[in-house]
Amino acid sequence: MRPLLVLLTCTVLSAPAAWAETGTAEQVRYVMGTPATVTAWAPGQAEADGAVEAAYHVFSRVDSLMSTWRDDSVLSRLNAAGAGNWVTVGSEVCEVLLEAKAVAGASGGAFDPTVLPLVRLWGFRDGAVAVPDTASLTTVMESVGHRWLEVDLQGGRARLNRAGMAVDLGGIAKGYALDQAAAAMRKAGAEGGMLDLGGNLLAFGQGPAATAGIVDPEDPSLVVATVPLVDVSAATSGQYERFLTSEGRKYGHILDPRTGHPVPGDLSVTVLAAEALLADALATAGVVLGLEAGLALIEDIPGAEGVFAVPRPEGGYDLVATSGLALTETNR
Ligand code: ADP
Ligand code: MG
Fold it and tell me: E strands within the chain?
């Protein structure tokens, strides 16, 4: 087995297969705040090259629509519009907002796209993480709630119905971008593709047989379990991936909108689903919900499977998977 892509928590291993296609193209570029690797297989080299370009084109379009790291994105315009004012955001943003609201409802608010005021309050946007005082936390919590995000799909517009509200699609937009990129690659003539957008994976169509490896959260060079990666997306979320430190304590970038605090602990959740958007959002939701409620949520959603790496108090961790997942444990 030859490692094709190495990620923090998910690794794609590809078996050297007899591959009939004549065109293969692969590029690694930095997009949406993260490295992205796109591989295309096509009957000809020109189509493979074109498919890879088409994927990156989608990534930059989604970034210009949904990034909250830039002021000129459509989402940043919505966030700046003030309470109660409709903003024309277009059908793509409307669709993702509606999907985000659906996951928010299904997860009892564990996943919530209106979490941005909390993300800012804790200092995750300016890099200076500090524990906020109770009064500020209480005030900011009043502007967090997916119910106050109103979406008019027909009209291609949205509005925030509460003062101080702001939307963050950081837990779902990469998944959406992968789904759209795969569609664009097919349109450009790719018969197969493998995409890795900052640990969110998507494999489609014909290509060398691929396996997603769940890596050891404590030693990402160790693959501890594998699952076949065929026409599926896999997303991993965990606090240890991205965190900031304040006064010797680690604070991860996933917040619990129900408490207003960063989710404690080092749980890592990988979700597999046909739709990358769903895998992405559910992985984030799973980290917030924890093992029991997270597993129950994913079990309930047809076609979605999950693996939870639950740290043991004495060190190490247990792998717990949903019932429909064929997980092969290795190196343990
Ligand atoms: P990554 O972006 O590292 O792949 P996730 O998909 O788990 O990780 O998304 C985490 C991002 O989602 C955070 O950086 C933040 O922007 C946003 N976020 C944090 N907490 C929540 C939450 N409870 N619900 C929805 N989005 C969240
Ligand atoms: Mg996510």
Answer: 2-5, 10-14, 23-31, 34-42, 87-88, 149-152, 157-160, 192-197, 200-205, 210-216, 219-228, 232-238, 243-246, 249-252, 255-256, 261-262, 268-273, 305-311, 317-321, 328-329
Measured in Å, residue 143 CA sits from the centre of ligand 2 at: 22
Instruction: Write down the pTM of the prediction.
Output: 0.93
Q: Which atom of ligand 1 is nearest to the CA of 199?
A: 4
Most informative mutation of 63, 254, 259 for ligand 1 (most atoms within 8 A of CB): 254
Q: For residue 253, report the distance from its CA to the centre of ligand 1, in Å.
A: 7
Tell whether the torsion through CA atoms of 179, 185, 187 and 191 is positive or negative.
negative
- Residue 55 CA to ligand 2 centre (angstroms): 20
Ligand at shortest distance from the CA of 119 = 1
Compute the distance from residue 214 Cα to the ligand 1 centre, in Å: 20
Span 206-218, pLDDT tens digits: 888 788 888 877 7
What letter would DSSP give residue 13? E
Q: Quickly tell me which residue has 């029991």 as its tokens.
A: 292
Atom 10 of ligand 1: nearest residue by CA position: 171
What is the per-residue pLDDT across 196-255, written as a single tens digit (0 to 9) for each? Answer: 999 899 999 988 878 888 887 777 788 888 888 899 999 999 887 666 777 777 788 999
Q: What residues does ligand 1 touch, defined as CB less than 6 Å away?
A: 111-113, 115, 119, 168, 170-171, 174, 198-199, 237, 241-242, 253-255, 257, 280, 283-284, 288
Residue 219 CB partners (closer than 8 Å, separation 6+):
none
Q: How far apart are the first and last CA of the chain?
A: 18
The closest of 181, 155, 175 to 60, measured between CA atoms, is 181
Atom in ligand 1 nearest the alpha carbon of residue 241 = 3
Return the structure tokens found at 130.
């500090």
